[in-house]
Amino acid sequence: MPGSADYVIWFLGIILEASVIFCALRRKLFRRYFFLNLYVLLELLVSLGRFRVLAHEGLSSPTYRYFYFYSDALLTIALFFAVISLYMFVFEEMKVERYLRVGAILLLAGTSWFSYEVVNQSSHRMLTYFAFELSQNLYFVGLVLTFVLWGAILKLRETRAMVVQLVLSLGMYFSAFAASYSLSNLSPDIFQHLVYLVPAMGCLLPLSWAYSFWRVSDDARLTPARLAVIPR
User: Fold this and answer.
1) Of 15, 24, 37, 123, most Cβ neighbours within 10 A?
2) Cα–Cα separations (whole angstroms), residue 141 to 98, 137, 172, 202
């Protein structure tokens, strides 16, 4: 069963996720950043659901295992679309929303197909392994997309403080979890010693978003000098 530290991190994450929704509603930013808030809302509901299943079924039960992996895949897909929504903000003046939507669907479908093929060729042909493989691959796709988006922000001289803050926090989040997935695949023994690190990292994203929605004005702009200077 989880220890006291697990429960502290768990409830801290729930509080931070609820804070993001509260701040977005308070500042009337929920609809503007809908997919980001949708992801956080799903994260909040999933956290509560996992706690309920854990309390009734136990950590080692098949029910908790299935719920964990399926919900994780759902959250990763929601986060993937949150990243795409930030692309909409950065490229909104170019009127390429339709192409971004089609590209996002094709990329998600391609990642899902690749994940299925990996699981289909292994000895573990179970839906839980597909959910895990899909989440893992989407984290790496999200990491690449976020860094490409950051490059676009620098190239296009995007100065909206809110957008820059949200993209930077996503970049750090994806980097941390992509590294944790790699570490778990390369050295499971070492990864077991970092059992509290991964859930603690999960608290950083809602913390950053709650701060952004509460403290950063949606109209705030950064001076170009504060971004990397890239010649056009």
Assistant:
1) 24
2) 20, 6, 14, 18
55-70 in b/e form (b: 16+ CB < 10 A) is eeeeeeeeebeebbbb
pLDDT of residue 230: 46
Contact 174, 142 (CB under 8 A): yes
Percentage of the chain modeled with pLDDT above 90: 31
Q: Which fold has domain 4-218?
A: Rhopdopsin 7-helix transmembrane proteins (1.20.1070)
Q: What per-residue string of b and e applies to 74-84 under the rule 16 or more CB within 10 Å gives b?
A: bbbbbbbbbbb
Q: How far is CA 98 from CA 92, 95, 104, 141, 148, in A?
A: 11, 8, 10, 20, 19
What is the tens place of the pLDDT at every residue in 136-161? 888 888 889 999 999 888 888 888 89
Residue 188: what pLDDT?
A: 59
